[in-house]
Amino acid sequence: MEQKSIAILGSTGSIGTQTLDVVRQHPDRFCVFMISANSSADLLIEQARTFHVPHVVICNPDKFQQVKEALPGVDVRLGIDAACELVQAPEVQVVVAAMVGFSGLKPTLAAVRASKTIALANKETLVAAGSLVMGEAARCNAPIYPVDSEHSAIFQCLLGAHGNPVEKIHLTASGGPFRTWEKDQIAQATKAQALKHPNWDMGAKITIDSATMMNKGFEVIEAKWLFNVEANQIHVVVHPESVIHSMVEFKDGAVMAQLGCPDMRLPIALAMAYPTRLPLDGKRLDFGSLGALTFFEPDRVKFPCLQLAFDAIARGGNIPCAMNAANEAAVAAYLKDQIRFYDIPEVIAEAMDRTAFVQQPSLEDIFATHESAFELAQKRISAL
After folding, report:
1. In 10 A of CB 254, how many CB atoms?
2. How far apart, in Å, are the Cα atoms of 26 and each of 3, 208, 267?
């Protein structure tokens, strides 16, 4: 049994810590070559010691000395460029791309160009630069296995498709904490209420994205690139129980679904060990006590961010990148109590409208778009 050497971009976040739990359960299958974090120095140090990690990257220069001094004998480096270099090391076989936000694009692309297997949890990589990333993955023969529970479900359903084309993807959504609220109630929602996700334990940014349903919009764009389908083939359906993680429909009307308890370690482990399914501790579905499974259409009036994502796909080019950048700025401002909940889609829409359109953006165009749209959003936030 071959032991795979992995690098984890964003090891201190929700996906990163659960990735290390998979490693903890299967030390015979995985060893950790590199871990990285932005600012969570204490946890990064603890992880490096626990898993005997030889290479560590911290991106916040203020935390570098602390990490360096705490880990004698470990190769401690500073910054994104160091992460880009280490994911390309010949020892690395699998790169878990778990960084949050646009900052994950550069090291993920570096890993793709080094023909590594990518376990992709960073939505923004494909939202901002889907065409470029998938093109490079094909050119470099770098497999990309999705870690999002929804995209992992679609991937698993397609394993049984035997090449039959997809007619429709049914992308399930929990609906977030505000799925049963009226719009005027949502308008007054506090940050604490927005951060209380009913089903999943996630980081602050992705939890707010779930509350606005921008997260589902991101997943629509991801699905387009991962599975080579058009936006009109992707149907978002709210499924509050989060038991069916997504479904694939074929031209004969047959629908295949993947079910499981809400546990991100399942798609993480499958992406890391594919095609092997590893045993994991955790809850199993009890169909006898499951009760009803419910489904309903999302309300794009209450959740305009979902519509903005479909608008971004329709416009194409660099507009999804602009949408992502503005969303990052707006969510950061919301988490600092600088703007209200429904200011988030307003900020995003204005940045999308004011972004100079590029039909076929290069990587340089993508970085320039991100910077300009982020600045546009920040100006709007200041005005609010």
Report:
1. 11
2. 10, 32, 15
**Distance between CA atoms of 48 and 58, rounded to whole angstroms?**
12
Residue 283 tokens, joined = 């809850």
SS3 label, residue 95: strand
Is the distance from CB of 237 to CB of 226 less than 8 angstroms? no
Using CA atoms, how far apart are residues 29 and 278, in angstroms rounded to an integer? 9
On whether the CB atoms of residues 207 and 194 are closer than 8 A, the answer is yes
Burial class (CB in 10 A: 0-12, 13-18, 19+), 305: buried
- HSE (side-chain half, CA atoms, 13 Å) at 188: 4
CA distances to 79, 122, 217, 382 from 158, rounded to whole Å, are 38, 21, 21, 46
**Span 288-337, pLDDT tens digits:** 988 899 999 999 999 999 999 999 999 999 999 999 999 999 999 999 99
Please say if the pLDDT value at position 365 is more than 70. yes
Q: Is 354 within 8 Å of 375 (Cβ atoms)?
A: no
Residue 275's pLDDT band (cuts 50, 70, 90): very high
Tokens of 225: 């690139």
Question: At which residue do the structure tokens 């499981």 appear?
Answer: 260
Contacts of 61 (CB under 8 A, 6+ apart): 78, 79
Helix ranges, 228-264 (H): none
Structure tokens at 14: 């929700």
Q: Is the peptide bond before 90 cis (omega within 30 degrees of 0)?
A: no
SS3 201: coil
Contact assessment for residue 347 and residue 330, using Cβ atoms and an 8 Å cutoff: yes
Measured CA to CA, the distance from residue 129 to residue 289 in angstroms comes to: 43
Interatomic CA distance for residues 358 and 372, integer angstroms: 13
- Which residue type sits at 305? C
In 41-114 the beta strands, taken as DSSP E runs, fall at 55-58, 75-78, 94-97
| DSSP-derived secondary structure letter, 163 | T
Question: How many CB atoms are closer than 10 A to CB 287?
Answer: 9
- Residues 200-224: tens digit of each pLDDT: 566 788 889 989 999 999 999 999 9
Paired tokens of 168: 């429709």
Classified as helix, coil or strand, 139 is: helix
* pLDDT tens per residue across span 190-202: 888 888 776 656 6
